[in-house]
Design brief:
Elements (H helix, E strand, L loop, with lengths): L1 E4 L13 E3 L7 E4 L7 H9 L4 E4 L15 H20 L6 H20 L16 H19 L4 H12 L10 H4 L7 H8 L1 H9 L5 H8 L21 H16 L10 H11 L6 H7 L11 E4 L4 E8 L2 E10 L5 E6 L11 E4 L8 H6 L1
Antiparallel strand pairs: 1-4, 2-3, 5-6, 5-9, 6-7, 7-8
Helix pairs in contact: 2-3, 2-4, 3-4, 3-5, 4-5, 4-10, 5-9, 8-9, 9-10, 10-11
Bound molecules: fe (ii) ion.
Fe (ii) ion binds next to loops.
């Protein structure tokens, strides 16, 4: 399968994965199924829902197939629970009781076990969905990324459990932010941004006495930055607690790689470059290093451009260095060429990936798909 961006989808292409959409009224809805042949109507539906692109079947790439790191049943169950708990906080005088916390704990325990048992990288696939119902999906994604990073940092089971709870509840303070600010498609005014910032301290009020102090301090500091330019307190360096530093990295990564109403999604490699550029000013360098072992810069099936001007498709990622995957070359005549192992083939040591290859002038998607 190949990942083709919306701009390049054409009638006759066959979907290699389901496309799911999420909305405010129900958790998820199947928009188009795997095996469906695209026509103009279906392509317009994908465009309408602002989905980045689609996985397309192709014989020359039928050996590449990736499954999501967390199974869909557990994901769906977890998000339903997060949504329920967040709504309870909204209805119940903006405080959470210990029963709700117990329910969140059992979600975290299942997630930790699933992640420990699964060696897959967390984002080997580009998720084909939009996020109208963004907050709950975002908290789930941040939890998966945080637990994976925590494992990489060598945290013990007790700490992974607390980190997971902090991640699932990190945005619960948004339940007391007016919806017109929360869902505003344009940039927030200074006054609105001040209100938005209060979600960090609101969470502390909501969760006081029902979670540990470490969890509270982690949630409270998920928007602090290493150089003191963050909020709510402008804490610096070692004054920011560990859970807060991990949440900060995972929060920004997921926000920038998710489809949002007001902004175009970035590809993972662009976000990774951004994170690396901000290491030591905004984010903790060691945490970034461990985080990068868990997310791929170039998900499987995506078109990339190489430093020698060739275009290729990513066919395999190595956890030990996700910046240098195995790629399958697209020849100048748009036939499919050989595989290049950018990590272990020493003859290729000078070749680097310089960006996404979708808009390369030499690419003819129809020819590649018929080759
Ligand atoms: Fe936040």
């Amino acid at each position: 399968m190949l990942f083709v961006t919306i701009k390049h989808l054409k009638p006759g292409m066959i979907l290699a994965k389901d496309i799911i959409i999420y909305n405010n009224n129900q958790y998820s809805r199947l928009l188009l199924s795997k095996g469906q042949s695209l026509n103009d109507t279906y392509i317009n539906k994908i465009i309408y829902h602002e989905i980045t692109g689609a996985y397309i079947e192709n014989d020359a790439f039928n050996d590449i197939n990736a499954e999501p790191a967390i199974n869909k049943v557990l994901e769906s169950k977890s998000i339903t629970k997060i949504k329920e708990i967040y709504s309870r906080a909204k209805d119940g005088g903006k405080k959470l009781n210990s029963v709700a916390v117990k329910e969140i704990e059992s979600v975290v325990d299942e997630l930790v076990i699933e992640i420990l048992n699964n060696k897959e990288l967390t984002n080997n696939l580009i998720e084909l969905k939009n996020y109208d119902d963004y907050t709950y999906q975002h908290c789930f994604n941040v939890a998966v990324l945080s637990i994976s990073t925590g494992i990489s940092l060598g945290l013990n089971g007790y700490m992974l459990h607390d980190l997971g709870i902090a991640a699932l509840l990190h945005d619960i303070g948004k339940m007391s932010i007016p919806l017109e600010i929360l869902n505003k498609p344009d940039k927030l005014s200074d006054e609105e941004f001040e209100i938005m910032k209060s979600h960090t301290v609101n969470a502390v009020t909501m969760l006081k006495h029902v979670v540990s102090n470490d969890i509270l301090r982690g949630i409270e500091s998920h928007h602090e930055k290493l150089n003191g330019s963050g909020y709510p307190y402008g804490r610096k360096g070692s004054n920011i607690p560990l859970y807060g530093k991990i949440l900060a990295v995972c929060d920004v990564y997921d926000a920038l790689t998710s489809d949002r109403v007001y902004r175009k999604t970035c590809f993972p490699n662009e976000v990774i470059e951004y994170l690396m550029g901000c290491a030591d000013t905004n984010f903790d360098y060691e945490i970034i290093q461990e985080f990068l072992k868990k997310v791929v810069a170039y998900p499987i099936g995506t078109f990339v451009k190489l430093s020698n001007d060739k275009v290729a498709v990513v066919v395999k990622s190595y956890p030990e260095n996700t910046m240098r995957p195995v790629v399958r070359i697209i020849n100048p005549d748009n036939t499919v060429g050989e595989d290049w192992d950018l990590l272990y083939d020493l003859n290729l040591i000078n070749i680097t990936i310089v960006g996404m290859g979708y808009d390369s002038e030499t690419i003819d998607y129809n020819k590649i798909l018929s080759s």
